From TrEMBL:
Occurrences of domain Radical SAM core (ranges): 1-213
Binding site for [4Fe-4S] cluster: C9, C13, C16
Enzyme Commission number(s) from the entry: 1.21.98.4
Obligatory cofactor(s): [4Fe-4S] cluster
Function: Catalyzes the cross-linking of a glutamate residue and a tyrosine residue in the PqqA protein as part of the biosynthesis of pyrroloquinoline quinone (PQQ).
Entry superkingdom: Bacteria
Top-rank EC class of the record's enzyme: oxidoreductase
Top-level taxonomy: Bacteria, Bacillati, Actinomycetota, Actinomycetes, Streptosporangiales
Protein name as annotated: PqqA peptide cyclase
Subunit structure: Interacts with PqqD. The interaction is necessary for activity of PqqE.
NCBIfam families found in the cross-reference section: PQQ_syn_pqqE (TIGR02109), rSAM_more_4Fe4S (TIGR04085)
Length: 348
């Protein structure tokens, strides 16, 4: 379960997966509502909750929310900005089990430009606090045109900070990343070089290095959340429940925990049943031997690029719309914009 506690964030990353229409603080679920949702999630069988945002540390009631998680393994997904020794101790006492820290670049200069504000020092400080507290530290690095060439330095940084898991996530073009697709789009040569470097690192470190494939470049669609409504769900700051974190813009009536219990939402809501299984598929997906592995690719991406969520994900080489992706790969470059609650402005 991904719990987006808030869309507020001190950073303004241009690849942010949050929707471009952000939920304001006044629309967020309150403490009691989040505790109820987590209790319902535990009863439903949820084992792992990623407490994310935005920046979840902006919630003054974060420890109360963690304490109400009913035994679910809780991981804090954070920029690190605002994390103090006292705050971390409070969260650990409440039941926090691990921390995932985002890193934008291998140096303060590179990181702060991508993040849209000075934050590198706060990230380093946060990493040292997490390690000193004895909590597992994961580092998440979104890879794109502006940092792929520094993948060696990024891995070295994560290891120096004490990470026991490093997620090297090639940018997924949803939310703000789709707005900034040209600016973030890597070249094929960049991806190939970075992939080779990661393979070499795996031969000389025992730290887990996770490579999230670039579907635009590889011509292979990413599995849609392990299957639509199959293994995970996302709760938005305002209580909407999504089968996929990027499903905000799909033509679906998204259910809300303020109106329905989580059990009904998961099992019976039209949104969660819209693309379950394979019966909804058209050719070439319906006859593809990989349909139970990639599930036709990403429904949100299909809709964003073609206007039809039932079409084959254009990232797939078999898609009749694959040219939309190959053309985009060859059209990288230019300015990108910060994530913002108001009108974006160029930053590069």
């Amino acid at each position: 379960m991904l719990a987006e506690l808030t869309h507020g964030c001190p950073l303004r990353c241009p690849y942010c997966a949050n929707p471009t229409r952000l939920v304001t603080r006044s629309g967020e679920l309150d403490t009691g509502e989040w505790r109820r949702v987590l209790g319902e999630a535990a009863a439903l069988g949820v084992l792992h909750a990623h407490l994310s945002g935005g920046e979840p540390l902006l919630r003054g009631d974060l420890a109360e929310i963690v304490a109400g998680a009913s035994g679910i393994y809780c991981q804090l997904v954070t920029s690190g900005v605002g994390l103090t020794r006292e705050r971390l101790a409070e969260l650990a006492d409440a039941g926090l089990r691990s921390v995932q820290l985002s890193v934008q670049g291998s140096s303060a200069a590179a990181s702060d430009v991508i993040a849209g504000r000075r934050s590198f020092a706060a990230k380093e400080r946060a990493a040292r606090l997490v390690v000193a507290a004895g909590l597992p530290l994961g580092v998440n690095i979104v890879l794109h045109r502006h940092n792929l060439d520094a993948v060696d330095e990024l891995i070295e940084l994560a290891l120096a900070w004490g990470a026991n898991r490093v997620e090297l996530a090639n940018v997924q073009f949803q939310g703000w990343a789709l707005v900034n697709r040209r600016a973030l789009m890597p070249t094929r040569d960049q991806v190939a070089a970075a992939r080779a470097k990661v393979a070499a690192w795996r031969g000389r470190t025992e730290v887990e290095l996770v490579w999230v494939a670039p579907d635009y470049v590889d011509g292979t669609p990413k599995p849609c959340m392990g299957g639509w409504g199959a293994i995970s769900l996302t709760v938005a700051p305002d209580g909407r429940v999504l089968p996929c974190p990027a499903a905000y813009d799909l033509p679906l009536d998204l259910p809300n925990v303020r109106d329905h219990p989580l059990e009904w939402i998961w099992a019976d809501s039209p949104a969660f049943n819209a693309y379950r299984g394979t019966a909804w598929m058209r050719e070439p997906c319906s006859g593809c031997p990989r349909r139970h592995e990639d599930f036709g690719g990403c429904r949100c991406q299909a809709y964003a690029l073609t206007g039809d969520p039932r079409r084959t994900d254009p990232a797939c080489a078999l898609s009749p719309d694959h040219h939309l992706v190959t053309e985009a790969v060859e059209d990288g470059g230019g300015a990108f914009t910060y994530r913002t609650f108001s009108r974006p402005r160029p930053v590069l």
